[in-house]
Amino acid sequence: MNDNAKRWVEALRSGEYKQSRHVLRTKDGYCCLGVACDLYSKAVGNYRWEEGDDGFQFNYSGSILTQPVMDWLGLG
Predict the structure, then answer these.
(1) Which residue, 14, 50, 58, 72, has most beta carbons within 10 Å?
(2) Facing residues of 40 across strands?
(3) What is the pLDDT of residue 54?
């Protein structure tokens, strides 16, 4: 597990991110993949959240983890 994945697990356990489901991010919280996207965005700085009809999307990725985020986590 790389350092970024370790930070992801720590963030999931921290209680800092309120949990949501079915979309990466809502106004009230994040799914586990949304937390990964948020951490990536803060670390890399070239991605942003866009509000969509059913929640926030990560650069229009819908509810999936993008390849750059998977690579950053060591999952790619």
Answers:
(1) 58
(2) none
(3) 64
